[in-house]
Each structure stands twice: as structure tokens, then as C-alpha cells.
Amino acid sequence: MESQRVDMFIMANSKYFESHQIPAIRQRLLNIDESKWIMVQSLGYKDPTTSLIVSILAGGLGIDRFIIGDTGLGIGKLLTCGGFGIWSIIDWFMIQSATREKNMILLNTAL
């Protein structure tokens, strides 16, 4: 894969991944063939900032966890009203890294 194309992808999508994962992502993208490139570009990554905003506004209902694909945790938060509020507050600090982790899993699945 062309390094310029990979660098443009990294610049456009670096906010969706943890900063320590970027070099490994770049290396893996340089080694993929052209047929997988279109699939990698078309993946729908979740925005960590959006997850944080949803967590602050409606985290007690588990909507933040449903958005990133953690259905079981979303149901748990919904049934316990956000862990009686405690779980919701903890998620304000953890939801962005959980979103980035889900994005990395999505990328690994595509590669």
C-alpha cells in the first residue's frame, strides 16, 4: 500500500484510535493488499467525543453503551439506572477509551 495513502488515512482517523495504537495500525495498513483498502476506508468508526456527550446526557439509560455495541452492558445500565448513578459517572471517564477499543476491534476484524 502507498505510504501517502496510509498517512492520509491515519491523519483523518487518528481520533478514533488510542495514540499508542497508531504506529501498529500504520504498519498493518502498509502491508495490506489493495482489495482490503476500500473495506478499511468504508468502516463506520464511532466517534469518542459523541460517545462522551451521549454518556453525559443519557448515560443512566445505557444509551452510550448501546451506541458502541456493548448491548449487555447497556441493558445492565438501563435496568439499574446507570448503576444507581455511580456507573454513569465512571463511564464519563471510561467511555472514550471503550469507544476507541471497539474501533480497534472493528479495524482488526477488517484486516
UniProtKB/TrEMBL annotation:
Name this protein carries in UniProt: TM2 domain-containing protein
Gene Ontology cellular component list: membrane
Transmembrane spans: 74-95
Pfam families: TM2 (PF05154)
Subcellular location: Membrane
Main location: membrane
Species in which this protein is naturally found: Solitalea agri
Entry-linked InterPro entries: TM2 (IPR007829), TM2D1-3-like (IPR050932)
Keyword tags: Glycoprotein, Membrane, Signal, Transmembrane, Transmembrane helix
Boundaries of every TM2 domain copy: 46-93
Membrane topology: Multi-pass membrane protein
